[in-house]
């Protein structure tokens, strides 16, 4: 089991023997986003201590804080973040940060508590294209969202191979019951802090290798609410139609608020 778990991690981080050190995120069978549709999406480029680059997604949760997967920050000495545009190479804002926090109980082998925060040196000015997402309210913090339709958002390639997408992608996905998720991933989903999804419009729809930190949202009364961030996928890749695994945000709201100051 340990070897299998490590193999999953190598695929999602792009550390397998056939992967380059420059990492790209991907969503398969998604749709092109429009300007301002997801104003809280962030791309994160990390620089490791050995000089390699990593690439992840994140989500703006305040005017100075970005939430992402802990694995996107583990071993990183500096990150660059870009936001404000659906065009990946033409961001409205680009800045760097040396300040980030990984959840103290993060486990790189089992993906437990796979969540981290980046703090920006200067607050951002909110516009139509740059806004913070809403965290789950108290009534949603223990919700598993089973059978709910949610939206996964991110930049990147559209399958296991090919070039990164030049435009922000999103896909509608369905949240699976915990037992169904466990039938694929076993002990990786043994806690209520993890959930899985499959495509709602297409059997092969969801995150692909390296789509770390991509936000999963629901929309209530025209308000986007963050319910998960992409954590792991199947070792068979994203074209096999297997579920995407997420960290469920509800149990971490208190930890997030302690770090962002409200």
From TrEMBL:
Domain Peptidase S1: 27-261
KW Disulfide bond (keyword) present: yes
Keywords (A to Z) from UniProt: Disulfide bond, Signal
InterPro entries: CLIP_Serine_Protease, Peptidase_S1_PA, Peptidase_S1_PA_chymotrypsin, Peptidase_S1A, Trypsin_dom
Cross-referenced Pfam families: Trypsin
Organism domain of life: Eukaryota
An example Gene Ontology molecular-function term: serine-type endopeptidase activity
Secretion signal, residue range per the UniProt entry: 1-20
Gene Ontology biological process: proteolysis
Protein name, entry field: Peptidase S1 domain-containing protein
Record lineage: Eukaryota, Metazoa, Ecdysozoa, Arthropoda, Hexapoda
């Amino acid at each position: 089991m340990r070897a299998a778990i490590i193999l999953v991690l190598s695929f999602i981080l792009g550390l397998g023997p056939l992967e380059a050190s420059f990492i790209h995120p991907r969503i398969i069978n998604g749709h092109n986003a429009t300007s301002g549709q997801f104003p809280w999406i962030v791309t994160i480029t990390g620089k490791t201590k050995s000089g390699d680059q990593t690439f992840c997604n994140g989500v703006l949760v305040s005017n100075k804080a970005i939430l992402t997967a802990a694995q996107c920050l583990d071993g990183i000495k500096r990150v660059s973040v870009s936001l404000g545009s659906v065009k990946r190479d033409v961001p409205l804002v680009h800045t760097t940060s040396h300040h980030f926090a990984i959840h103290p109980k993060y486990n790189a082998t089992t993906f437990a508590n796979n969540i981290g925060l980046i703090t920006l040196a200067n607050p951002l000015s909110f516009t139509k294209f740059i806004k913070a997402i809403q965290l789950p309210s108290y009534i949603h913090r223990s919700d598993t969202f089973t059978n709910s339709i949610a939206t996964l958002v991110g930049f990147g390639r559209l399958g296991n191979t090919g070039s990164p997408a030049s435009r922000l992608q999103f896909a509608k996905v369905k949240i699976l019951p915990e037992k169904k998720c466990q039938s694929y991933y076993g002990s990786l989903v043994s806690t209520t802090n993890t959930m899985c999804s499959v495509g709602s419009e297409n059997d092969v729809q969801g995150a692909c290798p390296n789509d770390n930190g991509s936000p999963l949202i629901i929309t209530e009364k025209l308000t986007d609410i963050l319910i998960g961030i992409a954590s792991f996928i199947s070792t068979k890749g994203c074209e096999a139609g297997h579920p995407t695994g997420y960290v469920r945000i509800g149990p971490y709201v208190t930890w997030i608020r302690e770090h962002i100051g409200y």
